[in-house]
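Trying the structure run again after the queue cleared.
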Amino acid sequence: MRYAVTLTALLGVLLATPVAADPEPGNGDNAARSADSGVPPPVADPVAKKFIPSRNKAAKIKLDKVDIPTQELLLQAFSLIGVNYRYGGKSPETGLDCSGLVRYVFRQSMQMALPHNALAISKMGENIDKQELKPGDLVFFNTLRRQFSHVGIYIGDDMFLHAPSSGGGVQIVNLKDKYWQQRYNGARRIVPTSEK
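Done. Tokens:
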């Protein structure tokens, strides 16, 4: 119960915070994308210096469907929103890359040691169909012209949290955005060995 109350309060704050929108095709921002990641930058409001809210609805995580280990994982992940991206990054203090984020969250919340490589992580756990995604599952994308080159943590309602190489740091984006739909490679569910 304590985790559900904490998660509810944290989600209330986070979901009131805008998330990055996908860029409009042909808006001229393609040059701002990282050449080696292919991850689109969020659209920034130059006046407010905030991310423009996504055109999609805010995520609605069904807390009664989320077990306590997953609540701990999500709390850890949400606490990292805004942490700067750093290629090869392993800690929030110095910055995180996508696999560093996933590795850090799983180590802190579930005491699991994952590899620091999206492709290696994609070979762990069980394969999950897109329609069967649950909060805490890992979602994989082809952003470097190779499969399983990017990873994020699914949080529910077609939203996932990740560390893009451009865009200001760890953020929540919509899995249904055209950019992510076109690059989706699959999902995995990794559970501690004690739960198998």
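The first strand starts at residue 44 and ends at 45. Worth checking whether this holds up in the mutant runs.
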